[in-house]
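Amino Acid Chain and Its Fold in Token Form
===========================================
Purpose: to set a sequence beside its fold so the mapping can be learned.
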Amino acid sequence: MTRVAQWWLQWRTWLHLHKARLGLFFRVTASALISYALADWLHVRLPLWAVLTAIILTQMSVGRSLKATIDYLAATIGGAIYGGVVGVLVGHDSEVALLAGLAIAVGPLALVAAMKQSLMTAPITAAIVLLVPTIAHATPIALALDRVLEVALGAVVGLAVSFLLFPSSAYGLAVEAAARTLERLADAVGELMAGLKGGLDVDALHRIQDGIGESLMQLDGICAEAERERAARLTTAPDTGPLRRTLLRLRHDLVMIGRSAVAPLPEALQSRLDPVGDVAAAIDEFIRASGIALLARRIPPASTPWNRRWTPMRRQSPRFATTG
């Protein structure tokens, strides 16, 4: 292979691995430029908020952008209405009135946001509606309407760009996250199996299990976005539930092996653990092959070749000999 061919292969591999991130780069850039151009054309009071909203709501996947847009619009509209009402009733003629209005507006909304994380921008919007009139010399109601218009403009632009420019499906991201989880599971098999003989340090065991747990948590979040896309009929991708449940079962199997590996097994069983290395290698190879097949959207590998590698252990163990 020539140097040019090697360079081209490396470049294609890099593009494939970072395709989702590059797509986000183009979408965020386009969202910022388009939202500013539209805000300037519509003579919006503060184009900054339209640009910031478009950037915030342009997410890695369409499903995530859709949820972020719904949450952000709900929080903004609620905060703008509440802040506008407080501004009209309390006023901002004096510093005392302004401080009282700010406390009345921000405090309850902060409590609501603490109970429902998706409404975190509501107290921010209420504070903007109350404080900007002292600078822009406008009424709270006018500022509330402007704030809703600015955010709505940014939300429409961000969501439209997420749909139209290099759209990234949450299902594809879920497949990549599942493949990474399989890699972690494969890495853990050898360490846990080896711990059956020599025992595993508790800190090492926690490191292994916590890494798998983090991968599964990330997968759960992405799968929720994929299911949101399916519910909105934005994709025809299959249900991610079976994939998540299968990986969770594998994790539970490794948890049980890890509990057995905390201390070395009795010497009477040590002689029967010689084939464990071959078993761990077979499991490792099978899990990695499954991850590769998952990424390539191919049929999973057959288990027959790996079952043959377990035959020595099955013959050696009386338990396996009686059960067949």
Q: What stands out?
A: The two ends are 50 Å apart (CA to CA). The chain has a mean pLDDT of 79.
